[in-house]
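__Protein archive entry__

___
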Amino acid sequence: MEFRDKSLACVDCGNPFVWTAGEQLFYHDRNFKHEPKRCKECKARRQSRGSRAGERASHSVVCPECGRQATVPFKPTQGRPVYCRECFERRRAV
């Protein structure tokens, strides 16, 4: 299969960017089905917005077992208990 450079428009900024033949070959080899939607600058900006280097998202919860305030690195799901570290370790050992 022969690939040729292709011009695409970024969905974020609208600027055209080139999807090179080498990038197309990479997508083909890995069975990626969709063309890229964002230019390299917008993709980098979007990735940096999701998680800053060294920072982790944290959420404050109240342990249902002991009532202490705890911080967890994930967003708790409603209806599921989230325990503090000590209570979690104690339950895990059982």
Observations:
- Strands lie at 6-9, 16-19, 59-62, 69-72.
- Residues 6-50 form one domain.
- The chain has two domains: 6-50, 59-93.
